[in-house]
Amino acid sequence: MRITSFKGGVHPPDNKKSTASLPIVDARLPERVVIPMSMHIGAPAKPIVGVGDAVRKGQKIGEAQGAVSVPVHASISGKVIAVGSFPSPMGADAQAVVIESDGADEWADGLAGHDDYLSLNPDVLRNIIKEAGIVGMGGATFPSHVKLSPPKEKKIKYAILNGAECEPYLTADARLMEENPGDIIEGLKIIMAILRVTDGFVGVEDNKKAAIKAMSAEAGKVACELVVETYYERDGIQYEVPKGCKMGVKVVPLPVKYPQGSEKQLIKAVTGLEVPPGHLPMDVGAVVQNVATAAAIYQAVRFGRPLVERVLTVTGPGINEPRNLRVRIGTLFEDIISQCGGINKKAAKVVMGGPMMGIAQWSLGVPVVKGTSGIVALSEREAVNVMDFGPCIRCGRCIEVCPMGLNPSVLGQLIEKGHFEEAKDYGLLDCFECGSCSFVCPSGRPMVQFTKWAKRELARKKQKAS
Ligand code: SF4
Ligand code: SF4
Description:
- The chain is an alpha/beta fold.
- The protein is 28% helix and 21% strand.
- The strands form five sheets. Strands 1-16-15-19-17-18 form a six-stranded mixed sheet.
- Helix 5 (181-195) packs across helix 6.
- Residues 402, 404, 406, 408, 431-437, 447-448, 451 line the site of one iron/sulfur cluster.
C-alpha cells in the first residue's frame, strides 16, 4: 500500500521512553469518585440519582439529553454523597455526581452482552454503544453512536482506527494495542458491521513496532474467521452475516510526524484521500475511531459493560514514577498522581492529554473523564507561558508546518485585534488546534489559545442571535 503523508507537521521530541515498555496496571479502587455529567461533546447528561442513593458499578446515573449526548454510569459501587457543581478538567465547573465507595466494587444487575454480536442489526448495535456512554477516547469525546450514524446518502467505504498516538509522552494506546489487540480488532469488526464496510484499517505510527506486530497478528485472523462464519444456526434460528460483510483489516504503519493522528491527516495517510476544507471524513467515505474507543465498543457489545474506566499515561519530568494505568472514570488526578510517586520540583505545569493539544490544569482536584488520555507534568522549559509572547515577525515558519494549509500568522493577528468574523474567512473553523504553529513560532505566539478564544466568541455570538 502506498502511504501518503500530509503536508506540514512537526517533529517534537517524543519523550515516550519512560512509559513505552511499562505494562498497563490497574489503579487502586478510589474511595470517592466525582463523575461529571458532561464528558462528551453535546448536551450534558441529566443526573437520575440523588444524595443517599446506593449505586453499583455500571449503573446509569445520568440520562442522555438529546441526539448528541450519552448517558453516564457509576464507575464504582457505593453511595451518592453529592450532586452539584464541581471543577472539571475540561475548563469550567460542571455538574457531577459524587460517589463514596463501599469497597465491594460490584457490577449492577442486568448488564448482559451478546456473543453473536456481528449478526445484530446495526441500529441495535448503535443503541448498545449509546447506552454504554461511549465517546471518542482519543480526546475528542464525540459520541460514538452519532459518528456511526452517517446519513444514508453518505456511502462509507473505510472504517479506520486511529492508533497513531502522535502526541509526545503518551503511551496508553500503544500499550493497549500490545496488550489487548483482540478487543480492539473485535471492536473494529463491530464498527464495520454497523457501517456495512468491508475494508478496515488501523493506522499506527511506524515507531511502535511491538504494537504493529500485535495488531497485525490479530488483524490477520479477521478474513478467515468471517469466511467460515458466513452462515450459522443457533437455537433453531439461522443467522446470516450480511452480504458484503466479508471483512478484511489491514494495519498500516504511518510516517512518524505530528499531528499524524488527527482525522484528516490519518485519512490521507491511509487512503490517499483529502478531506476538503469545511468537510467531514464521511464526505470522502471514511469514519475514524480511536483504538481505545474500539476496545470499549467491544466490551459494551460483547459483555454489556458501560464505559466506566480507561487506560491513561501518567508521566512527564514532574512525575516521580511514570506509569500506564487503568483508571476508573471520576478518580481525582491527585489520587492518581499519588499512586505514581507524587509530583516533584521539576513540575511547572500539569496538562490533561499530551503537551501539544492538552488542557492545562489549575488544580489536581479534578476527575479523570472519558477523554483523559494522559496526565503529564511538564517542566519549566516545556511549559509554554501563554501570557508571555511577542509580536509576529512574519518569519513564515507557522505557514510551512500548518497541516491544514492555513496562515496562522494572519489568523493570530486578526484574532488579537478581535476580528473574529474575518478570521473565519481565513479558515479559523478548519484549525483543529494541533499546536504545530505555536511549536515552531520564535515569538512564542499562543495560536491555539487565540483560535479557541475566537471560536468561543463566535459561538457565543451565534447563541445570542438565535
Ligand atoms: S511563526 Fe510566529 S512569528 Fe513566524 S510568521 Fe508565524 S506567527 Fe509570525
Ligand atoms: S493554525 Fe491550527 S491547524 Fe494550523 S498549525 Fe496552527 S493549530 Fe494547527
